[in-house]
Amino acid sequence: MMRPFVSPFAASAAFAIAILTSFGAPAQPAAEPPVICAALSAAEPAKVIEVCTALIDNPATPQADRLDATITRAAALHNSGQTGKALAEIDTVISRDPNRARAFRARGEILRQTGKMEAALEALNQAIRLEPDNANGYANRGNAFNNAKKYDRAIEDYNEALRLQPDFAQVFSDRGAAWYFKGEYQKAIADYDEALRLEPHRARTYSNRSAAYRKLGRAEKAIEDVTAAIRIDPTQPEFFDNRGLDLAGNGDYARAIADYDEAIKICPEAKFLTNRGDAYQARKDYDRAIADYDAALKLDPKFQRAYNNRGAAWVKKGDRRRALQDYAEAVRLNPSDSTAAANHKDIAQEIERLGSLSYQKNLPSFNCTTAKRQVEKAICADPGLAQLDRNINDVFLRVIANAESDSHRAALALTRQQRDFIEKRNASFGKRGYDLRQAMEDRLEKLNTIARQ
């Protein structure tokens, strides 16, 4: 039976850890405070840099304050995209005061945010050695362990941070994230409850608690929490997207579409457009669904779910040829997607049962009307080469489906081999000594040999 599409309410909702930083933005203030050179400033990075620079350049500023201002400016530089310069400033501070724990915490946080976990942990370990009674050090290292998917180690550090500072709201929220990723959703909710008791205006904590409720199947509570997040901070597109997923899960596609509209208005992303396309498809508005999938793929041509779900819409419109092409692309992009593989197999069998494969004779696996490479134009112009290309593609998809059932690694290896063949074909065509037909026949024979094993 044809799998319709990856349901919008089955897709994972966006879940972002509201990670503690020594220089991140705090909860939204009621009124904009004056700009000062201090950690956790809510001001724009450019303004923080300006104020800190004035303090650093002032001859009357004591050396200790100057070093602290340099750390704060480094954080602002990182937040403005000048990470290399930020790390250089941290290095300068450490060279002048190797025992300044805050500098190591700042270095660790910047490295964590840039994905350099080993170096981040090294810096944070040093910060803890220098100040073993500082809760921030354990909180920051817990975040690094969380990012590295070492959730038990993260929880140990969060526990220590809370022992040192029992009212540390952000640590409760971050420990909740670790519990969430471990699948301990009730424990995650308990930590989010405490975080919100201490700081009831953190939108991200409401959003994260909503995700935990969603995992427990408590849709009403999930919607209630994500609505609270939107009320506190309506600038975050994923909040609207997440509520859209919850509403779609309840069959309320009209309100879901309204939320996706808001998410897209704030920041057009392929996943938001695909989710809205799914809602339109659920309402049987296939043209609007396809338009959204098209827009999603224009933004991100490798967004695999959009291909699969657009394929389902083409099936509903009766266009099996386009459905088959979309399902094939979905399989190419993610050979381990069993839904896409099953959809491709089902539509191919349906076409064959209906005797509709004749339209594919002498047509290659790609669209000749959009072919740009000379080798593709040559294949389109030669019926024999076109049939060879289609045969290669059909056998490759069967081989991938069979391999994936045994070994994901083997399927990936076969995918790489196919890509290597196409890249070599594209690069070699037209060069002396290269026989395109022979190369394609050899590739087909190799694939057939694999298929017979």
Topology record:
Layout: H1 45-57, H2 63-79, H3 83-96, H4 101-113, H5 117-130, H6 135-147, H7 151-164, H8 169-181, H9 185-198, H10 203-215, H11 219-232, H12 237-249, H13 253-266, H14 270-282, H15 286-299, H16 304-316, H17 320-333, H18 338-353, H19 374-381, H20 383-406, H21 408-428, H22 436-452
Helix pairs in contact: 1-2, 2-3, 2-4, 3-4, 4-5, 4-6, 5-6, 6-7, 6-8, 7-8, 8-9, 8-10, 9-10, 10-11, 11-12, 12-13, 12-14, 13-14, 14-15, 14-16, 15-16, 16-17, 17-18, 19-20, 20-21, 20-22
Explain how this protein is built.
InterPro entries: TPR-like_helical_dom_sf (IPR011990), TPR_2 (IPR013105), TPR_rpt (IPR019734), Ycf3 (IPR050498). Keywords: Repeat, Signal, TPR repeat. Pfam families: TPR_11, TPR_2. This is Tetratricopeptide (TPR) repeat protein. Among the domains are: 180 residues, Alpha Horseshoe (Serine Threonine Protein Phosphatase 5, Tetratricopeptide repeat); 93 residues, no CATH class. Helices cover 70% and strands 0% of the residues. The protein contains 22 helices and no strands. α10 runs antiparallel to α11, α16 packs antiparallel against α17 and α20 packs antiparallel against α21. The protein starts with 44 loop residues before the first helix and ends with a helix. About 5% of the residues have low confidence.
